[in-house]
Amino acid sequence: MRYIWSLPNRVFHWGLVIFILIAYLSDDYLRLHIAVGIGVLSLVVFRILWGVLGIKYSDFKDWGKEPSHNKIASIVMGLILIDILLICITGLFSYFYNISEDIHEFFANSLYFLIALHLLGVSKEFLINKTNVFSIFNGYKKGEFESIKLNSFQKLISIILLTISFISPIVVFIFVDGNSDNYYELYEDD
């Protein structure tokens, strides 16, 4: 067994799953929806930085190569990250600048399709190719490839960025007024 998915990568993955689920379920509770959306945005920013810091198998240049993601999975994962960024940006614009939420909802709905493709690919890998898909839980995968090891800088950066990602929704929840339809309405009388 080789260690291929670092703890920060797995915390990102499962944190994103939980935050997206909460965002979906809190659609009618604006304050929580916005707070969790900021958490999602923070996690995606972390993942983009993590993808350029050179951590083997998590580095974007390793996508499409085994044991990372195959080419199709890499494309789907890239589209998921881009789509989530667009969801967050359009959500912030619809809240702060009172623009239509239709674009935000379009990207949210497209995310459900991309998540379904991801889960379909995971199922195919597990059921047909007999691939160990449980490595996203413990980090280990069978194969003849190099194990990863984080250096001190990577550990420090991941601790700082993931801490920000999980604290930012709490801070936003405390300071965002959930009684207004949007931020613009809060201050238009000033």
TrEMBL record:
It is found in: Cell membrane. SUPFAM superfamilies: Transmembrane di-heme cytochromes. The chain crosses the membrane at residues 7-26, 32-53, 74-97, 103-122, 156-176. Residues 5-138 form the Cytochrome b561 bacterial/Ni-hydrogenase domain. Its main location: membrane. GO terms for molecular function: electron transfer activity; heme binding. It comes from the Bacteria. The keyword Transmembrane applies. Keywords: Cell membrane, Membrane, Transmembrane, Transmembrane helix. It is a multi-pass membrane protein. The keyword DNA damage does not apply. This is Cytochrome c' family protein.
